[in-house]
Design brief:
The complex is a heterodimer. Chain A is built from 15 helices and two strands. By secondary structure, chain A is mainly alpha-helical. Chain A folds into two domains: 106 residues, no CATH class; 190 residues, MetI-like (MetI-like fold). Chain A has a two-stranded antiparallel sheet with strand order 1-2. Chain B is an alpha/beta fold. Chain B is built from 17 helices and 15 strands. In chain B, the strands form four sheets. Chain B has a five-stranded mixed beta sheet with strand order 2-1-3-13-6, with helices on both faces. A four-stranded mixed beta sheet of chain B has the order 14-7-12-15, sandwiched between helices. Chain B has a four-stranded mixed beta sheet with strand order 9-10-8-11. In chain B, strand 1, helix 2 and strand 2 form a beta-alpha-beta unit. Chain B is globular and about 65 Å long. Chain B starts with a helix and ends in a 5-residue tail after the last helix. Classes of the chains: A mainly alpha, B alpha/beta. Chains A and B meet through helix 2 and helix 14 of A and helix 3, helix 4, helix 16 and helix 17 of B.
Chain lengths: 374, 411
C-alpha cells in the first residue's frame, strides 16, 4: 500500500484506470483470445465453424505447422516473401525520395512552403483513395502505360498489377540457411561495431553467437528441409505498382521528418565544417547524415509497421483475389471470412503480430531506456 | 359484458389480420440489381402495409463483402430476419450444417412448391432430405457468347465440343485473331474452368466430383486441367486486368470470337449495351455441355432465432410465388426458378433459357456456391494459382484433392 501514500499517485492511477481496463480488454485480451483461437481447430469441422456454440478442440501449433510446411498453404509462404520485398522496397523508396526532397527543400529554393505542402499532401489521403487513383493509372490499357506515347515511343505493355512474372526465385527449403546466414552476418557487423566502440564484452558475445549461427546454417541449416519438395518463391513484379503507390503516398511524410531533422542541425556545425574546408558532399556525408540517423530509424519503424500490415491499399488497387499481389493481411481476411477457417486465420494474424512486434518492440525498448536515462 | 368481449375479439382479430412489426432483409443487391429487389419489397408492402421493411444491403458483387458482414452478425447472435445466399452448398455447407437454419420443407408442402420447382434444383438445395431455402432466380453458368455476324465473317461455327473449340481457335489464330477467347479477372477464369470440367467430364462425373465419388486425382479429372490449359492458350494474356464486362466487350468489338460467362452477360448486353438478343449477339451452351444446365441461384432462408418470424415466412412465401418470381426476374435479367412462369414477360434469350431449364439435366456451379462449400470454393483460388504458375495438371489436381480432404467435401 506504499504507492497509496501519495495522493497524486492515487489520482494518477485512478485517471489512468479506465484506459488501462479498456486497453487490457480490447487490445491485450483480444490478442490472447486470438492466440488461443490459433491453437484450436475452429473452422476445420464445417458443422462447428459457424454454429451458435461451436465445439472447439485444442490442437497446439498445428495451424502454424501447416502454414509454414503444409502442402496447400503455399500461398501464405509466397505472401510472406511478398511482404518482405514490399517492405524492403517501400522503406528504401520512401527514405531515398524523402531524403532527397528534404535536402532539396532545405537549401531554401523559392516557393519552399508551396512545395512542402505539395509533397506532404498525399499523406493526407487515405490508402483507399490512393489505391483507387493508382488502380486507374496502372490499367494495362491506360495511364502509365500510355506515357511513352507522349514522346513518340510505343505504349508500355507491362501488366502492372496482374503480371505473373517472378524474379529472384529461391526454394522455400533454402530459407533456414539464408536466415541463419543473414542474421549471422548482421551479428558479425554488430560485433565489429562493438569492438570499435571499445565494448569488448558485448563484442565477444556477438561474435561467438555469430560463429555458432553460421556454423549451424552451414551444417544443419542446409539439411533442414521444411518441405519434402522444392517450392519456389520470389519477388512478384506485380508488386512494383503497389510499391509505386505506397512510396508516392508516404515519401512526403518521410520528407517532413527529415526536414525537421535538417532544421534541427545548428548552423554553427555546418559553418564549422565549411571553415575546416569540407566540400558540400563531405559536409553531408560526415556531418549531416550521421545526425539524421535517429530520424532514419524512426522513419523505418513507422514505415515498416505500415508495410507489414498493409491491407487497404492492396485491397483497393488489386482486390482481395488477385494472387500476384497478395499479402498476409488479405489472406487472413479471406481465410477467416470466406473460407471459414477461423483458427488458421487467427494463426496468420498472430504471425503478422509477431512480425510487427519484431520491428516495434526493440524500438520501444530503446526509447524507454533512453527516457529513463534522461 | 358481451359487448366488451366482442370488442376484444375484434381487436385481437384485426391484430391477427394485419401483420405489423418489422422485417429486415439482408442482401448484396445494390446498384444494377437494386430495382429488382425494390420491386419485390414494394410487392411485399402492398400485401402487408403495416410491416416496416428494412433493406440492409452490403455492396460488392457476388456477396464478397456481404458474406463477411453476415458471419460477424450471426456469430454475434444478431441474425437478420432473412438473408440472401447462393442456393446450394454456400448455404448448406456454412449455415445448415452449423444448425443455424430452419427446415422449410413444411412451407414447400403447404405452398405446393414441391412440383413447381424442378427436382434437380430441389436436390441441390436440400440437406439430408430437408429443404432450407427458397430460390428466387436462376442463372445459367455454362453459356458461350458470340457475335453471329462476326462468326460468319470468319467462316466458323460455334464449336460443339472442347476439341472442336481448340480447332476453331487455331483457325481463328490463323486468320490473325490473337486471342479467340476473351477472358477476364480471377474468378472468370474459375468460371471457365467449371464449364471445361463439365464439358470434359460430362454431367454425371462432374456431379460426382462434388459428392466425393470422383477424386480430383483421378486421371479423368486431371485431364480437365490439361484441356483447360490448352483453352487458356486461346485466351488474351491481359485477362487478369479485365472485368467480366470488359471481356464481353472484347467479343462485341470483334477482338475475340467467344466468351464463356454466366447469363448475366445477356442482361449486360441488352440493358447496358442496348443490343438485341439473337441478332446482335448469339449464344450456345459452352462446348460439350449441350443438354446440361449448370445453374446458380440466389435464395433466401430462415435463420433460427429471428425476431420477426411470421413476417419472414410471409416474405419467403412471396419469393416463391409465381407473382413474386415474375416480378423480380425480368428486372434482374434471370429466369424464374419455378417452371410455370409466364414467358411473355421475358426477352428472347431468357425464353430460350426457360425452355432449357424445363428440359435439361441440372447441375450446380462451383464458383457461384452451388456444389461446394465456401471453405472449398475460396481455397480453389489457390489451386488455380498453383496451376497458372506451374502449368502442372497433376500438381493442381493434388492440391484440389488435399483441400477437398481438408474441408471434407461431399461428406
Amino acid at each position: 500500500m506504499r504507492w497509496f501514500r501519495n495522493k497524486d499517485t492515487l489520482y494518477g492511477f485512478l485517471v489512468l484506470l479506465p484506459s488501462l481496463v479498456l486497453l487490457g480488454v480490447f487490445v491485450y485480451g483480444f490478442i490472447l483470445q486470438t492466440f488461443w483461437t490459433s491453437l484450436t481447430d475452429w473452422g476445420r469441422d464445417p458443422t462447428q465453424a459457424l454454429s451458435a456454440n461451436p465445439r472447439i478442440n485444442f490442437v497446439g501449433f498445428e495451424n502454424y505447422r501447416e502454414l509454414f510446411t503444409g502442402f496447400v498453404d503455399a500461398r501464405f509462404r509466397q505472401d510472406l516473401v511478398n511482404t518482405f520485398f514490399f517492405t524492403l522496397f517501400f522503406i528504401l523508396g520512401c527514405l531515398g525520395l524523402g531524403l532527397s526532397l528534404a535536402i532539396a527543400l532545405d537549401r531554401g529554393p523559392r516557393g519552399e512552403g508551396f512545395f512542402r505542402t505539395v509533397f506532404l499532401f498525399p499523406m493526407s489521403l487515405s490508402f483507399i483513395v490512393t489505391g483507387t487513383i493508382w488502380r486507374w493509372m496502372l490499367q494495362p490499357e491506360g495511364g502509365v502505360n500510355q506515357l511513352p506515347t507522349l514522346v513518340g515511343l510505343p505504349k508500355g505493355e507491362f501488366a502492372w498489377l496482374t503480371s505473373r512474372e517472378q524474379i529472384w526465385r529461391f526454394s522455400w527449403n533454402d530459407l533456414p540457411f539464408f536466415t541463419g546466414l543473414v542474421v549471422g552476418l548482421v551479428l558479425l557487423l554488430i560485433a565489429a561495431a562493438a569492438f570499435r566502440a571499445g565494448e569488448g564484452k558485448r563484442g565477444w558475445v556477438a561474435s561467438v553467437s555469430a560463429g555458432l549461427l553460421l556454423l549451424w546454417s552451414f551444417t544443419f541449416g542446409r539439411t533442414l528441409k521444411p518441405l519434402p519438395y522444392d517450392e519456389l518463391h520470389g519477388f512478384n513484379l506485380a508488386f512494383i505498382g503497389i510499391i509505386l503507390a505506397a512510396v508516392w503516398q508516404m515519401s512526403g511524410y518521410t520528407m517532413a521528418l527529415y526536414l525537421a531533422g535538417l532544421r534541427g542541425i545548428p548552423e554553427e556545425l555546418r559553418e564549422a565544417a565549411r571553415v575546416d574546408g569540407a566540400t558540400e558532399w563531405q559536409l553531408y556525408r560526415h556531418v549531416i547524415l550521421p545526425m539524421l540517423a535517429p530520424i532514419t530509424l524512426s522513419a523505418m519503424i513507422i514505415l515498416g509497421h505500415i508495410s507489414l500490415k498493409i491491407f487497404d491499399l492492396v485491397f483497393a488497387m488489386a482486390g482481395a483475389d488477385n494472387a500476384p499481389t497478395d499479402v498476409p493481411a488479405l489472406l487472413m481476411y479471406l481465410t477467416t471470412f470466406r473460407a471459414n477457417q477461423i483458427a488458421k486465420g487467427a494463426a496468420i494474424g498472430m504471425v503478422l503480430l509477431l512480425m510487427v512486434a519484431l520491428v516495434i518492440v526493440p524500438y520501444l525498448y530503446r526509447q524507454l531506456k533512453s527516457e529513463v536515462r534522461r | 359484458m358481451r359487448k366488451w368481449f366482442l370488442l376484444l375479439a375484434l381487436i385481437l382479430g384485426s391484430l391477427g389480420m394485419a401483420q405489423s412489426g418489422k422485417l429486415e432483409i439482408f442482401s448484396w443487391w445494390a446498384g444494377d440489381e437494386g430495382p429488382a429487389l425494390q420491386a419485390l419489397i414494394d410487392l411485399y408492402k402492398k400485401r402487408y402495409p403495416n410491416v416496416e421493411v428494412i433493406n440492409a444491403t452490403v455492396t460488392g458483387g457476388s456477396g464478397v463483402n456481404a458474406r463477411a458482414v453476415l458471419k460477424t452478425r450471426m456469430l454475434g447472435g444478431d441474425p437478420p430476419d432473412s438473408f440472401q445466399v447462393h442456393a446450394g452448398q454456400e448455404l448448406i455447407g456454412t449455415w445448415v450444417v452449423a444448425d443455424r437454419m430452419e427446415d422449410l420443407t413444411p412451407l414447400f408442402r403447404q405452398e405446393g412448391w414441391l412440383d413447381k420447382f424442378p427436382k434437380g434444383l430441389i436436390d441441390l438445395i436440400s440437406y439430408k432430405g430437408k429443404i432450407y431455402s427458397v430460390p428466387v432466380n436462376i442463372h445459367r453458368s455454362n453459356v458461350m457468347w458470340y457475335v453471329p455476324a462476326k462468326l460468319r465473317e470468319w467462316g466458323v461455327q460455334p464449336p460443339k465440343t472442347w476439341a472442336e473449340f481448340l480447332t476453331v481457335c487455331q483457325t481463328l489464330k490463323g486468320k490473325g485473331l490473337e486471342a479467340p477467347l476473351a477472358l477476364g479477372e480471377n474468378w472468370t477464369q474459375q468460371h471457365l474452368w467449371e464449364s471445361v470440367a463439365l464439358g470434359v467430364l460430362g454431367a454425371a462425373d462432374y456431379a460426382n466430383l462434388w459428392t466425393g465419388k470422383l477424386r480430383f486425382t483421378d486421371p479423368k479429372a486431371v485431364a480437365v486441367w490439361n484441356t483447360f490449359g490448352r483453352v487458356l492458350d486461346c485466351a488474351n494474356k491481359d485477362a487478369a486486368g479485365l472485368s467480366w464486362q470488359q471481356a464481353v466487350d472484347r467479343v462485341l468489338e470483334g477482338k475475340a470470337a467467344f466468351n464463356i460467362m454466366g447469363d448475366w452477360a445477356a442482361g449486360y448486353m441488352t440493358t447496358t449495351k442496348g443490343l438485341k438478343p439473337g441478332q446482335d449477339f448469339g449464344w450456345a451452351p459452352a462446348p460439350g455441355t449441350a443438354g446440361v444446365f449448370m445453374m446458380l441461384s440466389d435464395s433466401f432462408g430462415l435463420p433460427k432465432g429471428v425476431k420477426n418470424r411470421t413476417n419472414t415466412i410471409n416474405w419467403l412465401r412471396l419469393l416463391g410465388s409465381k407473382e413474386g418470381q415474375d416480378t423480380f426476374n425480368p428486372l434482374k435479367g434471370s429466369i424464374a426458378a419455378r417452371t410455370d412462369s409466364d414467358p411473355s414477360k421475358y426477352n428472347a434469350y431468357l425464353q430460350s433459357a426457360m425452355r432449357d431449364w424445363k428440359t435439361n439435366r441440372i447441375v450446380g456451379s462451383l464458383v457461384h456456391g452451388t456444389v461446394a462449400p465456401e471453405s472449398f470454393m475460396s481455397q480453389f483460388g489457390t489451386v488455380m494459382e498453383i496451376y497458372l504458375s506451374s502449368r502442372n495438371a497433376q500438381a493442381a489436381a493434388n492440391a484440389a484433392q488435399a483441400i477437398a480432404n481438408q474441408v471434407r467435401l461431399g461428406q
